[in-house]
């Protein structure tokens, strides 16, 4: 899908094509294309079917909003899940700076160096980022929520998942992206969700953003190259030195990064927060200029639980009645000691994030398994033990083990009515298997 095809998709004719394409999602793709081609040309047919498919995929991240939004494949891949974006927006708007400069009509313009910027609606020409024509932000402005008057510059906005949450929280957002198609998609999303009066989207280079002229910098550098996803911050777009320069000039900043970011790339004085959604680590964010920065933080969504570093160190000891598996956000944030303290536990091995304890303590920070047996690892002995317990279905977890899980599952050749969780790990440097929770299936 190119820019011309997307622009046509926004016309009344394009909207009819898109509505028809949405109805065809899940049907045979050749038949769907053939049907649309009876009415529409090849470019519009392709754009409508692509957009309909992306909307269907986007529901996992954007819920009902996905049915009104627009996407590019890369933009959807990088987009923040709505619940995570809303969490960040709440954090950013919780501390509106008391010393921020005036935001009303009499305040000086705050922009990226573009005077007399043209209108920013869907019909406006693409241009570099400016917010001179943004709505008033002073005391007479309409209330928009917690972030009323907070000015945010989104330096790598993509299709807009993050600025939508910020605008809904009451912020006024000036957003920029290098790709004209992505900018057009982001503008369309702001308009489709009724937020165009709070968001300005323009084509521009993040390196030219002047974060010192805004209350907050938000940045989500692209983490994909022509070869696919990259885990090296130096290969981000913009690259890490540019991101750090922007952060260094911002009063407050939030930078979205991959969960596996090496600790040496985290700037001094920044808080690193890892976010888990329903037990799966989604991303990390680096915060600067925030009051009460914790150094390392883990957050669980949708519950909103937060854990910060206290310096707790977990002891190492023998297997108890229970094994606790810390949430991935706590592991990434190096907060296993803090989780161990919560469950009054100890580590099975000093280098592995499995905790054991003697009491059944409920916590959102760890899954708990009741231990039935502990064996030195041997496929033959494990198979015999599971057959003796009439286990026909196993959930296999591992940490610190080189065993191929799928091959092991095949080799076990189980046949029984019960289920079990088995944990492959090291216990004081010895390869071991822990059998947990054998019971009839629910």
* Form type: globular
| Poorly predicted ranges | 97-146
Average pLDDT level? 87
Number of helices: 13
Query: Which strands sit side by side, in order, in the main sheet?
Result: 3-2-1-4-7-9-8-10-11
The portion of residues forming beta strands comes to 15-25%
Computed structural class: alpha/beta
Strand count, sense and barrel status of the largest sheet are: 9 strands, mixed
The rounded distance between the terminal residues' Cα atoms is 47 Å
Radius of gyration, in angstroms, nearest whole number: 26 Å
Question: What is the strand and helix layout of this fold?
Answer:
Elements: H1 3-9, H2 12-23, H3 29-37, H4 42-62, H5 73-78, H6 82-93, E1 151-154, H7 161-168, E2 172-177, H8 180-192, E3 199-203, E4 216-219, E5 224-225, E6 228-229, H9 240-248, E7 253-257, E8 271-277, E9 280-288, E10 296-301, E11 305-308, E12 322-326, H10 328-332, H11 336-342, E13 346-349, E14 352-357, E15 366-376, H12 379-388, E16 391-398, H13 405-412, E17 418-427, E18 430-439
Parallel strand pairs: 1-2, 1-4, 2-3, 4-7, 8-10, 16-17
Antiparallel strand pairs: 5-6, 7-9, 8-9, 10-11, 12-14, 12-15, 13-14, 15-18, 17-18
